[in-house]
Structures are given as structure tokens and as C-alpha cells.
Amino acid sequence: MAGGVTTSLRTISSHRANGIRVLWLAAVLAGLGLLLILSVAIGTRSVGWADIMAALEGRIDSIDQAAVAARIPRTLLAGLAGAALGLAGAIMQGVTRNSLADPGILGVNLGASLAVVVGIVWFNIASANAYIWTAVLGAGVTAIFVYAIGSLGRGGATPLKLALAGVATSVAFSSLVLAVVLPRADIAGGIRSWQVGGVGGATFNGLSHALPFLAVGFVLGLLSARKLNSLALGDEMAAGLGEHVALARAMAALSAILLCGATTAVCGPIGFVGLIVPHLCRLLIGVDHRWLLPFSALAGACLLLIADIAGRIVARPNELEVGIVTAFVGAPFFIWIVRRQRVRDL
């Protein structure tokens, strides 16, 4: 009898939690829709609804409509890049069981960036597909390198050791990027601008090259949700439940690498999105990766759209790139997370 009552209470609690998650999902989707509209409408020139509709229909009869047409691919890129980085951050935190994991903090974005810069300067790569493949390769090699360094010594890959290894790698790679670029004054300006991280100048052609990589990354990442739930219980418990631990980690890590590499190739290295978003989503919907991963993708899109819109407003008639805005928000957030961690947990 008592067992039946307990089961009923658990069922009611589960339904209530799912109801709350559905409400948050509706709120996030509504917010994302509003941000997409604001991103198209707000800029150096503020435009009306009629101009937005005309541009969406392909009618470009005025400067305002031309401005809207230029903002549409930028808006799509900001949404896709934010979703990719938010999802990648949640996956990395799940794979490493490290609350400090983030594509920027672990050096993955800088590794992809360095690979692209080396490819441009030393091997004269020029095509969009070559940029993306090179960035994905750089992201993968860097992820393996940082995890290997962070695993050295007693205790294995602790959160603090991984974060320190990632930060040190990022600093080293930033210096290497400068060393590679400095002799090439003809391309130094463009690369430095790209290194800041931004979505300005986006085109549908550039998006079309990145979409296949992002699509595979999204699919693999979302399919890893149940596996990440098993890994959260510990490797031994996951193996006892029939999970192939190494394969589960490899599949999830591959999705994060694809997402980070493709995003960095198109936008440049954008930091802290993958750190902020999963933490906020856990506060709203809990730790179940079946909910956390899609929520992180949607919230990441919202965050990068907000950063892009804010960058256009605060520096009018100029703009702040989204990489600068996310750094302003993310650096204090990172410090707060480190301070709230107990020393023995690090």
C-alpha cells in the first residue's frame, strides 16, 4: 500500500515537473520569436513592420528594406551560432562532469581559430568548406590535448585542472595566432577582426556551407541526451546499466566539436555562451539532459541574439561585436561560478 502511494506521488511530481518545463519551453520559444523580430528591426536604421514584410517577400524598394534584407542572414547566423555554442557547452559539461566546461574556457574555440589562421597563412586555404573542415580538425585536436593535460597527476581530470589547462592553452594559442599573422600585413586586419567573434557580414552562402556540419552536430548532440544521463551517474554505474562509456563519450564529444568548429569558422571564437546558458537552464528545468540539451540550444540562440542587438544599440552608429558583449557578461559569471565552488569539489 505504502509503495503504491509513493509511486503515485512520484508520478504526480514528475507530471508537475514536466508541466513546468513545458511552460518554460513556451516562454523561451516566445522570447526567441520576439528576439528574431527585434534583430531584424533594430540597427543603425530602425525600420517598420511594412519594411520587414516587404524584405521577407523579396521586395527591395528602399534603403530600409535593403537594411532588413542584410539583417536576415545575420539574425539567422546569430540564432544558429548561439544554439550551437549553448548545446556544445551543455554537452561538454555532461561529458567531463565539469561545471566550468565551455568551448571558450577549454580552449576549443581558440584551437579551431588557430587552425584556420594557420591554414590561411601557410597553406593558402580559401574556400568556405576548407575553413570549416580545418576549424573542426583544430577543435578536435585541441579538445583531446586539453583533456589529456587536465588528466595528468593525481585525481585525474578535475574541473579546476581542466579549466586551468584550457585557459593556459587559450593564452598560448592566442599568442601563436598573433605570431602567425604578424608577418602577413595584407590579411592581418581581416583576421584580427574575425578573431573578435561576430555575426556581422553574414550571408546565405556562408550559412549554406556551415549548415550540414551544424545539422550533424545538433542531431548527434540531441541523440546523446540519454547517454549523458547515464554518464552523470558515474562510469561504473553507466557501464552496469549497459552503456558503452567510451562510445557514448566519443559520440557526444564529436557533436560538440562539430558545433564549435563550424561556428568558429563562420563567426570567429565567441566565448562564454556555452558556460552561461547550461547553468541558467539547469536552474529552470533541472539536470535531465533530455530537457537540458534542447533548452540550452534555444537559450543559447536567445543569448547571442540579445548580445547582437545590445551591441548595435550601445555603440550607435557603430557596433560592438557579439564576442565583446558576451565577454563582458561571461567573465564575471565565470568568476562567480569559481567562487561558489567548494575547494574540495575543484
From TrEMBL:
The listed locations are:
Cell membrane
Q: Where is the signal peptide?
A: none
Q: Would the keyword Cell membrane be found if you checked this record's keyword annotation?
A: yes
Q: Which residues cross the membrane?
A: 22-43, 72-92, 104-125, 131-150, 162-182, 202-225, 246-271, 291-310, 322-339
**Record keywords:** Cell membrane, Membrane, Transmembrane, Transmembrane helix, Transport
InterPro entries the record matches: ABC_BtuC-like, ABC_transptr_permease_BtuC
Would the keyword Signal be found if you checked this record's keyword annotation? no
**Domain of life, per the record?**
Bacteria
Q: Name one Pfam family in it.
A: FecCD
Membrane topology (UniProt): Multi-pass membrane protein
Q: Which family does it belong to?
A: Belongs to the binding-protein-dependent transport system permease family. FecCD subfamily.
Report the protein name in the record.
Answer: Iron ABC transporter permease
Specify the species.
Answer: Phyllobacterium phragmitis
Record lineage? Bacteria, Pseudomonadati, Pseudomonadota, Alphaproteobacteria, Hyphomicrobiales
